[in-house]
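thought: fold this chain, then report.
action: predict
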Amino acid sequence: LVTQGVCRVDLSEALGGEEEIARWSDELSQPTPLSLFAEDGEYAQYRNIRDDEALGFPFEKITAALAPALTEYFVGTVDELRLDDGFAIHYNMDHHDTTVAKHTDPSDITVNICLECSEDLAGSQVLFFGRRPLRRREELAAERQGSAADEAAEEAKHELAGGKEETFMVGPRPGWAIVHWGDHPHQTMPLEQGKRTNVVMTYCYKDPSRSGVLQGPAFTSRRKRGTKEAVEARRSSPAVSSPTPSRCHVVFAVSPMPRDESG
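observation:
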């Protein structure tokens, strides 16, 4: 995955272990009056948790646990970043639309944490478009030259309208996060069965001159605007069923799963 622009990080300990992850999943999968009013049950359920101090979600512990991966693949030090947003998303079969159209995030780095995915889960992977090289991409490519992983990545290339573009899908793994550049285009595939609950944390460079995210009085942070961008993108998409590539490389976690070597 790191050669394609995504790394996985085990956050089980930072989240408090299996029982605490289950508690967070149960808490954040419950509809709130605001989410019921905002979405009316039609779309996947969003909940802003960045500003909810009473909730006590362990943002600082998670950032500390992410530090080795962030400094290995993305930044020099974690101090270069600020946490801009944090929100929970719950998908289940009661929602009419469980997709999110192709988009980029209003962040420099995005961390997508899976708290829960039911045993019968089918679909709901994240589909990435193209490669966004991580810091050690060239080193890893050299080390793995000729390996099955590289052959699989090559096999993932296919023809799309307008030219060649490589796609790959990453499935959820409870207690783990996927970390990627905010401007790496991606979308959420339709939920076919089951349910899942995720927390998304977005980071921006503290130095505005380094950040790819518009800042200043005219561009307040996403958490202050609310978490509607993905819904609006979905509504404006001509096909909510999502474009299904003719051939793509799938990386999907199925329990039991050996420790991910990508970080």
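thought: worth noting. The longest helix spans residues 59-73.
final: tokens above.
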